[in-house]
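This part of the workshop introduces the protein records we will be handling. To make this concrete, we reproduce a full record directly below:
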Amino acid sequence: MNDALTLLQPYPFEKLRNLLADAQPPADKRPIALSIGEPKHRSPDFVAKALAENLDQLAVYPTTLGIPALRESIARWCERRFGVAEGKIDPARHVLPVNGTREALFAFTQTVVDRGPDALVISPNPFYQIYEGAALLAGATPHYLPCTVENGFNPDFDAVSADIWKRTQILFLCSPGNPTGALVPLETLKKLIALADEHDFVIAADECYSELYFDEDQPPAGLLTACAALGRDDFKRCVVFHSLSKRSNLPGLRSGFVAGDAQILKAFLLYRTYHGCAMPVQTQLASIAAWKDEVHVQANRQLYREKFDAVLDILAPVMDVQRPDGGFYLWPKTPIDDQRFTRELFASEHVTVVPGSYLSREIDGFSPGAGRVRMALVAPLAECVEAAKRIRDFVATL
């Protein structure tokens, strides 16, 4: 058995189940889950139609590289979305379809890490737990950078020593962040690219929430935006991860892509060929339809705006909570211990949230997630409003 498996911590939702196991919520209040970041908006009908119309492809073995039409649609979307000059993203070299970002982030780490006692993988703290698990199983040591309110919920990259950067093999970014919703500024992305060049590490930018933002006239920058601004047409040491799950409300389609440095993607393709994780052709054809349409994405953003506006109006007077830069999470401070808050909220109001301490690691006696909870505004507007009112009533009793 792989000894590294013993290093893995229980997943946050396993901890949450244990925390709430013997709690007795009121039977007269229907359950409302703000815990799991699973989009609940309607999936686009035209994507479902494209999937249904191509079910004959069930008889076809898919290739790991994917069909050219999908890679072409992804390349052109990246250019439009992130300001990359037309034709600079080669669909055959710079794009690889994947079965959602979770699978890709894990497999990518196994490809890139040169295992050894000095190998580091840097991630924000709090973080998406796949970053940690992937690093440990690849034979690297996770190194955590705290994301605190004092630094806009972004890591203080200037505080990282040269020795740490020299040992770093992968730097994970998440923008907008999970759970903080913070965006990594464009100028910071440029500085990180320079550091990657200096110390020879790979930047893995998890941008699966990139299409959930508030100002239609100012889409947030991504790592490809920084590459374009620097004239970095080879995308050296830069790789981005995107998905249709949040953008298009298609978490069950398991469709995304990795794009960037062609040399790294060539090695990643080799790994994935042996891994046996090709995207079904009918899924690829449905994905093309999704990547080519922005109308449904704009409508999706509007639904989230309405929920943030309504929920913040209710919670802001009673909790320390701010509108995030993007994504669909709120990251409020709790007036009591975050685990106690979560358990007592569930027991009194039948609303489920995630303790922030379950999403972060304590380093040198400090856990940046402690004293906060994550609330996913994924349910319909009426349910989010009802949950916010119940949370407000609960806070009033503390």
